Structure formats: structure tokens, C-alpha cells
Amino acid sequence: MKNTIVLKKVSVVIDQKTILKDISLSVKPDKPLCIIGRGSSGKSSLLKTIIGLIKVNSGSILINDIPINDKRINEIFNDFGVVFQKDALFDSLNVWQNIMFRSLNNFGKDLLIKKTYKILEKVGLQRSDAFLFPAELSGGMRKRVAIARAISHSPKFLILDEPTAGLDPIKTNVIFQIIKKLADNKQTTLIVVTSDMRGVIKYFSEVVVLENTRLHWKGEVQDVYKNPTPHVKSLFEKVF
Ligand SMILES: Nc1ncnc2c1ncn2[C@@H]1O[C@H](COP(=O)(O)OP(=O)(O)OP(=O)(O)O)[C@@H](O)[C@H]1O
Ligand SMILES: [Mg+2]
To answer: What is the side-by-side strand order in the sheet with 33-36?
Structure first.
């Protein structure tokens, strides 16, 4: 099916340590998914496994019905936009070069800067920001540049790891609104890892809770209130 990610009983073991155990879930463009869970529960590892950076030991991952160990998957991975937990901007490149890094060798500077301006507008940054270096950016600006880079090639899949970590509540809302707008077209399949429970409730419909390498709970946001386990309740304690 178009723009879908399906995990079937996925387990990952690294150096004899279980990182993910028996994870099954599916994500479609009309249902943005957020993944929550306490530190070290496996959230980032799950994202890295989905994008092929960590090898699956058992079970399978299918993207558009194609297994991720199939050769054809590389073409599909071109349609992925990813924001890593620490933003991972290239320190030696300025903002427009970061955003356009995929195209630096293929197109002229003027065209790429022009394209950058359009994307900067989408994430609420100024044209003049295009010429700053990562060291000159605030935390919120870094996040926006990381998102801008992830969406620069209009990806069909968007994978974001803690896109609002360390931001104040106002900046957090701005980032979530940007993400929601991107997902609202229902063309983009969105997976977001977040620790912001207010954001989860306000902006998402589907929630997965990881706990100690396993999928602990999965459901619609409203079920967090109706049908929580004690652990789910504790994660949402501050919001309830
Ligand atoms: N490449 C790796 N090699 C060995 N262990 C790893 C590797 N990647 C992750 N782990 C381990 O897997 C566990 C889960 O890590 P992960 O980064 O997925 O957690 P997380 O849920 O994203 O935590 P946080 O909320 O702190 O970001 C941790 O115990 C970590 O040490
Ligand atoms: Mg993480």
C-alpha cells in the first residue's frame, strides 16, 4: 500500500543485548504516529531500525510492501526525511548548504538559495538565516533548520526524533504546528518520537508506548484517558 510502514514482530539484538523485542505496528499517511516511553526504552533505536541504520535480527519491516532488505528499498529511502535526536547539522556548512546538502553537487548556488528561501518560510525562518552557521543558531532555530532539511526534497515519509527537546513551550508549539501542517496533507507518513505529553494529546491521534524494548501500549490518544495501564498513566501524570 502507498506510503505505509509495517513492522511484524521485529526484534533487534546488538552485542547480545536486546534492543527491541517483538515490535509489531503499522503507520499510514492519514494517521500520524507518535512514539513515547521513558529514556532508553528503545525509541530512537526503533526509528533507526525503520530507516535501515540498525539491522533487524528477526521479524520484518515492509515499506510500501517491500521488505527493507530488498534492493528496491533504496529508491524508497530517497523519499524519507529524517531529523535525528541531536539535529545532526553539518557544523561546517551554513543553513542553506545544510538544507540543500543533497543537491550541492548538482545545482548552482543561486537556484539552491532560492529553493532554501521557500523552505525557510515553511518553518518560520527568515531569508537572512540562510547564511548563518549552526553555531550561530538558537536551539529552536536548529530544530527548524533540521526539519527544513528533512522536508527539503518533499519526502513521503517523515521521521522525527524529539523535534522539540529542550525548547520552551512556545517554541514547542510552533514546531508541533509546523509538523502538523506537513502531516495534514495526508500524503506524508509521519512518525515522531517525543517526550512532550501535552504535544502528544494536542497534535496526534495514534500513540505507541515503548517500555524496556517492548511495545507496552498502542492506541488512540483518547484511550490514554479511558484505558491506561499504570505505566501509561505515570507517563501522562503531569498532563492529567
Ligand atoms: N548501537 C547500539 N549498540 C548498543 N546498544 C545500543 C545501541 N543503540 C542503542 N543501544 C541501547 O539501546 C537502548 C535503547 O536506546 P535508545 O537510544 O533507543 O533509547 P531511547 O528510548 O531513544 O532513549 P532516550 O529517551 O534517552 O532518547 C539503550 O540501552 C542503549 O544503550
Ligand atoms: Mg532517543
So the answer is: 66-67, 58-63, 5-14, 17-27, 214-220, 206-211, 33-36, 189-193, 157-161, 80-83
